[in-house]
């Protein structure tokens, strides 16, 4: 596979565009699915169905992690996100491939010298080689960006510490440095003085082929929040359906004016703030309908608090609903499909049907978010688990109190986040073709 880290070394900093000086500025970077041939995590020995089953397994694990971290003040998903992004840190720009995660807040990468790092196959960032790198002092207001885990070193430098729900962790210096991204227009965009975690102690379930995490959550240290002054707090993505396998079409992550979602079919729903789950984008799903039958989201089922009841997350594959709602919804789907019932060969999913064609009939299905009716297509509802089996890509989980709108349901929609006006927009699209 092509070396993903070479490109930016070749670009002199003089040609880098500094976006903080621009207003209404927009740019687009590539979002790499972890199973795409462009991903450093790509495993060519896996079959298409292996990849789908592995994605289902990660999805259910991610939810377990959320639940287990119940008692923590700021529960955070582990690093099992589904998408990667390439960013560069420092001057000259040093490229890393990291997990892009709407369920995380901080941008961190493994840093030399490493007292305790997981194995990383790509070269590691060395802050002493960057002329723009600076540790944040304990006295700086920015030190609070590291959330509850900040502390002081002996020489008064600000230290961050992130504990993930699966016992993984990252600890090190909170620092500022230039973050550069390779825009798909060909021109790199640089964001000086971006707060990053320079991780000297990172361990747990991290993959040897990724160098850290780029948080796209709502916290002050996330990439999205930090780019806010230049991008107006807007980003969007258009996820290619999981079933389209080894396509080389790339998913785009748009910022600023490139992330405008408007025009035909666009609907918007409010983002709520959850006191306990500050990282997440919390929405209100009022009901789900199959044909003319509407099933309400049960009152009080979610513990997000306030009005919201479901998290929208690009790093979770399935959509998780309260079990009572899932059962009504699944039964209604089963009754209106003219296909024979089948068993899920992977045993993850409950509502499966036998068909060898992808051109089957299905009832109209709509997700009724507050103020936004989102009509789902086949690729949002079903995932093919074998040559003759499709399954409803919706689940529930044992404790039945955190619900997630996952990435299969979001595919072939342009999904826009506006963290200034607190809204998520959906517009039907053909992702990959746009
Ligand atoms: C990491 O990438 C190498 C090739 O650079 C590959 O051989 C290996 O299987 C990958 N490992 C994982 C865990 O994806
Ligand atoms: C790649 O996939 C094969 C087949 O599923 C599996 O046996 C192997 O362990 C995988 N390699 C890595 C590095 O994950
Ligand atoms: C994807 O790209 C790789 C390398 O650029 C190429 O070898 C492969 O044939 C492409 N696959 C498809 C389905 O276009
Ligand atoms: C996006 O919206 C902003 C504000 O409404 C506007 O200034 C900008 O021109 C729009 N950009 C595009 C590409 O439509």
TrEMBL record:
One of its GO terms (molecular function) is aspartic-type endopeptidase activity. GO terms for biological process: proteolysis. Its main location: secreted. GO terms for cellular component: extracellular region. CDD domains: pepsin_A_like_plant. Pfam families: TAXi_C, TAXi_N. Gene3D superfamilies: Acid Proteases. Keywords: Aspartyl protease, Glycoprotein, Hydrolase, Protease, Secreted, Signal. The keyword Signal applies. Residues 83-427 form the Peptidase A1 domain. It is found in: Secreted. Residues 1-22 form the signal peptide. The active site is at 101, 313. Belongs to the peptidase A1 family. This is Peptidase A1 domain-containing protein. It comes from Cucumis sativus.
């Amino acid at each position: 596979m092509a070396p993903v880290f070479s490109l930016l070394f070749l670009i002199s900093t003089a040609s880098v565009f500094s976006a903080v000086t621009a207003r209404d500025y927009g740019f687009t970077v590539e979002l790499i699915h972890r199973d795409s041939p462009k991903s450093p995590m790509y495993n060519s020995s896996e079959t298409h169905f292996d990849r789908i089953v592995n994605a289902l397994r990660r999805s259910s694990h991610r939810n377990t992690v959320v639940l287990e971290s119940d008692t923590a003040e700021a529960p955070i998903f582990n690093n099992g996100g589904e998408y990667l992004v390439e960013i560069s840190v420092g001057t000259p720009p040093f490229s890393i491939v990291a997990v892009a995660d709407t369920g995380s807040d901080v941008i961190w990468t493994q840093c030399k010298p490493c007292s305790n790092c997981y194995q990383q196959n790509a070269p590691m960032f060395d802050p002493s080689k960057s002329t723009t790198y600076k540790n944040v002092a304990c006295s700086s207001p920015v030190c609070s960006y590291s959330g509850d885990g900040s502390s002081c070193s002996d020489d008064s430098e600000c230290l961050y510490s992130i504990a993930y729900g699966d016992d993984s962790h990252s600890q090190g210096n909170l620092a500022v440095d230039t973050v550069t991204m390779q825009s798909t227009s060909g021109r790199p965009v640089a964001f000086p003085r971006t707060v990053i975690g320079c991780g000297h102690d990172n361990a747990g379930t991290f993959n040897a082929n990724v160098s850290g995490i780029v948080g796209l959550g709502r916290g002050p240290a996330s990439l999205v929040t930090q780019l806010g002054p230049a991008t107006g707090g807007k980003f969007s993505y258009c996820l290619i359906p999981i079933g389209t396998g080894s396509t080389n079409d790339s998913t785009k992550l748009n910022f600023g004016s490139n992330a405008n979602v408007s025009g035909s079919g666009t609907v918007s729903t409010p983002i709520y703030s959850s006191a306990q789950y500050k990282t997440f984008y919390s929405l209100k799903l009022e009901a789900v309908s199959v044909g003319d039958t509407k099933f309400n989201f049960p009152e009080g089922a979610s513990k997000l608090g306030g009005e919201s009841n479901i998290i929208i997350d690009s790093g979770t594959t399935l959509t998780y609903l309260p079990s009572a709602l899932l059962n009504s919804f699944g039964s209604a789907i089963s009754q209106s499909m003219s296909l024979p019932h089948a068993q899920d060969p992977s045993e993850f999913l409950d509502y499966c049907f036998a068909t060898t064609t992808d051109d089957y009939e299905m009832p109209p299905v709509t997700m009724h978010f507050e103020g936004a009716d989102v009509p789902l297509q086949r690729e949002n509802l079903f995932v093919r688990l074998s040559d003759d089996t499709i399954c409803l890509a919706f689940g529930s989980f044992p404790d039945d109190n955190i619900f997630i709108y996952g990435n299969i349901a979001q595919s072939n929609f342009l999904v826009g986040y506006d963290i200034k006006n607190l809204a998520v927009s959906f517009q039907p699209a053909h992702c990959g073709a746009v």
